[in-house]
Amino acid sequence: MSPGAPSALTLPRFEHLANRRAIIDRAALAEQLAALEAPDTASLRRAASALLRDALDRGRAEIARRFEEKPTQGLQTAAAGAYLTDRVLRLLLDFTVTRLHPNPNPTAAERMTMIAVGGYGRGEMAPFSDVDIGFLTPWKQPPWCEQVIESVLYALWDLGLKVGHSSRSLDEMIRQARADHTVRTALLEGRFLWGDAALYDEAAGRFMSEVQADGARQFVAEKLAERETRHVKMGDSRYVVEPNVKEGKGGLRDLHALFWIGKFAYGVQRAAELVEHGLFTPQEYRQFQRAENFLWAVRCHLHLIAGRAEERLTFDVQRQIAERMRYADRPGKSKVERFMQFYFLQAKRVGYLSGLFLAHLDETFAGRGRRFGLPRLRRRPSRLKGFVLDRGRLALPHDDFFAEDPVRLVEIFALADLHAVEVHPLAMRAAARDAHLLTDHRRDPRANALFLDVLTSPRTPEQVLRWMSEAGVLGRLVPDFGRVVAQMQFDMYHHYTVDEHTIRAIGLLNQIERGDLVQDHPLATALFPGVVQRRALYVAVFLHDIAKGRDGDHSILGAAVAERLCPRFGLTAAETETVAWLVRHHLLMSATAFKRDLSDFKTILDFAEVVQSPQRLRMLLVLTIVDIRAVGPGIWNGWKRQLLSTLFDTAEEVLRLGHKQRGRGERIAAKQDALQQALGWDADRLASFVGQLPEAYWVAEPSDVLVRNARLIDGAGDAPLAIDTVADPERDATLVTVHAADHPGLFYRIAGAIHAAGGNIIDARIHTTRTGMALDNFLVQNPQGGRFDDEGQLERLRTGIADALANRARLTERLSAKPLPHPRAGAFSITPNVLIDNQASNRFTVVEVNARDRPALLHHLAHALFQSKVTIHSAHVATFGERAVDTFYLTDLTGDRITAPARIRALEARLLEAAGGAADAGAA
């Protein structure tokens, strides 16, 4: 609140609005309101509300028309919305006190003023923002004031506005502002709208003298704590791919917080005054304005598309906003990816400006206590390689320190890592300003050696690399990295931008090396000390996605980048070769583990042939783990750990022993011996059981599943159906086993029943015993990617399967009612694709189906295979956000691979139809 009771038109942002009368003609409306006649007060208020509602609608339409013509003018659109609201409110208040509740001679107690607070007080409103207002009276509200306030609120609700309101006396205002920082912040932006100007001035003066005075430090601390809480709630990263434009990190609220703090601590009335107080340079203020304007434009587009107040920039609206703001496709980068990259660059800029701003606050309040949000540091030497330490932070001795030797731009971060100190924000400002000086020093051996020290640091490389990136130094030193800064991947799988994903992956690699993640990754932790080329592994993680956003395969292009950069970083020829190989094949292990049958020995041999050495295998495993973990929360699970561990163990045996590894017969015999010991059966009983099952069964199933299957079959006797369900913590899934009389279509019916019960099948193995029974093992997860372990859930699975096999369940109706696994998957265009491969296995035809994930996709594909008269031996399901990859190992009905060209074409056509959803109705 500021003394002076300025009229609405004196706000600078309103003065810049062109042709304001086209938005709302106040004089004409006032005449129309004055001409209204009605038999009673209620009818008169309704008539006035109708007139104002029409004016409001026409004004909004005009603002939307202007915004459509100039879709990047966010601040002008927000100001126009506030201007329109101002005019409507003032007309309404004048009408209320002159026509509805006239009071020609108000007493001193009946004085009243209305103020705009919050964002509306700032003169900024998105199309569907709340209208936040406050009514102030000198003392307790008299009846006339209560009548006026009540009438105004009813009218505003009649206008369809969402109103946030308060009614306070001056003493209540001061008391509540002192007690509640939310009230304090709202009043800080209070602006006179209507009423008694002297009363407003009195309120503003008391607020300044009784609330603002000497309360700056507490206010700043509260705002910083509030910001941290908000960031944690919103994902604690400004690079989440569905950001909250208002509340998210790097969003509008962070810019508002800077202004609030500046206003409270320095008394600024406009953001431009932050320059006068030395908080920003003119260039930084222009960056502030640019970011604010862009974020407001995005927010206004969001509201208009949603038709309501919506702050989350979800996938389904990102494409629409990119088109509205006239972005265009470029080679290797779509319009929506270019739009989102610019969004994240602005969010990054907001973070940078916040750091500078807080540094100034820190200096201002340094003498009164410890630094904001920062722990006290141990005493350290006052100088490090020419840099000075300012209260535990690396600072510059003079402003042209970087210009004297640009390699210092890298050295400051290397020293920060080595000595566990922070970089002073003013040094960060200088680094951002001077980062361009590195352009001519990229090949300097000192600069590259210092960077490699940071990248491969055993301390905190993630934090220091993020500082380097925030300052723009990393992108200048490694321009290929600069190209992926703020580069989003328009899908529902990747949670972060490419640069953030990469830096997080480095942090995870560091944690594995230190042993901090031994519970999650025992194998990788145990293997890490045996990694000979440690530097190569860190560089490979840094470069694995370096070529994303280019036109071509980012793995192949990235390997070429690695061959060019590694010698410059100081790596040997052998290390360079390893890095290039790891980047080229960084998706190989996950693709093999998640999309192929690991019990098919040809899969292991083909994988081992590419890897060729145990050292590469170790490094590839660790790289694969950190790559998956850094995608985002909830992506990594026990099933993926199990698959990668199995692939590693079997491939390592092949690479270590070559042709000396145990043959198929030896492995089967070992499993059968282990089964006998686990069950305590005699030789005859075991032989009877073994005789029922084909050799492929013993190869395919792990030992723990063999034990459960044996107990199920032994206990079932001659029963036509037996179903077993058990939660499997190791695989983070539920094992569902069905032992039933074999008949065509059994698999797709079971799959449909599991989907109808809420389960997602991630793996399935189908066997037929020599007694004519089917033995099918399914690994099932719940919609959250975990296991079913509640007995009620397990019973629903068992009942659903039994009903489906007995034709008691209407599967088609139940499955059609299931919601999409990803409600916004429709934002993505995924063309179904079917790959049929007879080289991947010696015994089976391998079919891989890529399609948009949807309810019971596996069920529908399995039904298509049933119609194609083929036998399914195993199914493997992987999902990557909105995309599903279902792989089947098939034979024809005689047990041979499917090789006839006509048969392959027919199979492909039927699967494409099912993948696209056209054949769903037939899968009953």
Q: Any overview of this molecule?
A:
- There is one protein chain.
- The protein is α+β, with helices and mostly antiparallel strands and 924 residues long.
- Helix content is 55%, strand content 11%.
- It is built from 41 helices and 16 strands.
- It has an 8-stranded antiparallel sheet with strand order 9-10-12-11-15-16-14-13, with helices on both faces.
- Strand 15 (870-880) and strand 16 form a beta hairpin.
- The longest helix has 30 residues, at 335-364.
- It is globular and about 110 Å long.
- Mean pLDDT is 90; it is low at 5-9 and 367-381.
| Form type | globular
Number of strands: 16
The proportion of residues forming helix, as a percent range, comes to 40-55%
Average pLDDT across residues? 90
Radius of gyration: 34 Å
How is the biggest beta sheet arranged? 8 strands, antiparallel
SSE class: alpha+beta
Strand neighbour order, sheet with most strands = 9-10-12-11-15-16-14-13
DSSP helical segment count: 41
Strand content: 5-15%
Runs with pLDDT <50, length 5+? 5-9, 367-381
Distance between the termini: 67 Å
